[in-house]
Design brief:
By secondary structure, the chain is an alpha/beta fold. It has a single domain, classed as Spore Coat Polysaccharide Biosynthesis Protein SpsA, Chain A, CATH 3.90.550. The protein is about 40% helix and about 20% strand. It is built from nine helices and ten strands. The strands form two sheets. The chain has an eight-stranded mixed beta sheet with strand order 8-5-7-4-1-2-3-10, with helices on both faces. A two-stranded parallel ribbon has the order 6-9. Helix 7 packs parallel to helix 8.
Length: about 250
């Protein structure tokens, strides 16, 4: 069974339509799948609107307070049962039909992770030059600091073998911005190194979370990961990190 984790924050006006868009695509991809929608401390009606889509294939969870996307993904993963597992952003800037291509690539290459990449030569991406430059600089920084052979860690669509997630997620400390990078760092240390990249078609909507404050926090999280990896060697001796307690929506 394919599990699809959908973290959502303040998506009340769009979440129901986007989940239906997702399930319409999945109906064409797999006969056996589950969608796990996680409202990450949204203060609008995201949770209530998402509940309208609940059914045999869709489970909806919510909690307070807002804990960050990385936390939401792990929360959803621990409530999923399928293999492989994919993460897709609730705004559906990346069309869910791409998931079918990712599943086929994983079967063909027997890889640990299929990574959606805006830099894949077959990707179709249109966004401002400044954003493109910022993204390029960040990926250069990652190659220098971590020697990680992934050209785009931040695109919000990835497909994982469940065992790779099981090996890395319980040790992750980043809850928000650079959780993707921390996953790759820990997974590689655990012996999961076969990452392949796949093209994506991106319909950018430019949410406010892509501003200067977010960029600063990404950089801060990235340097913290480097410090824990190269200086403190935290990941080599770290115990599993339990999920923080949250107040679950009823």
């Amino acid at each position: 069974m394919l599990s699809v984790i959908v973290p959502a924050y303040m998506e009340g006006s769009k979440i129901a339509g986007n989940v239906r868009k997702l399930t319409d695509a999945l109906d064409r991809i797999a006969s056996d799948y589950e969608v796990i929608v996680v409202s990450d401390g949204s203060t609008d009606n995201t949770y209530q609107e998402a509940l309208k889509t609940a059914g045999p294939h869709v489970k909806v969870f919510g909690y307070t307070p807002n804990m960050g996307k990385g936390f939401a993904l792990r929360y959803g993963f621990e409530r999923s049962t399928g293999d492989p597992v994919t993460f897709i952003d609730a705004d559906m800037e990346l069309h869910p039909k791409e998931i079918g291509i990712f599943v086929k690539l994983m079967d063909i290459y027997e890889c640990d992770v299929v990574v959606g990449s805006k830099r894949h030569p077959q990707s179709q991406v249109h966004y401002p030059g400044l954003r493109r430059f910022q993204s390029w600089v960040y990926q250069v920084l990652i190659r220098v600091l971590f020697d990680l052979n992934v050209s785009d860690t931040q695109t919000g669509l990835k497909l994982f073998r469940r065992e790779a997630l099981n090996a890395a997620l319980p040790y992750m400390l980043v809850r928000r911005w650079a959780y993707d990078l921390e996953f790759f760092v820990i997974a590689r240390m655990k012996g999961y190194r076969k990452f392949i990249e796949a093209p994506v078609v991106v319909d950018y909507q430019f949410a406010s979370t892509t501003g200067l404050g977010a960029a600063i926090q990404v950089l801060r999280d990235t340097l913290s990961i480097w410090w824990r990896l190269r200086v403190r060697h935290t990941y080599e001796r770290q115990q599993q990190v339990p999920l923080a307690e949250v107040r679950e929506a009823k």
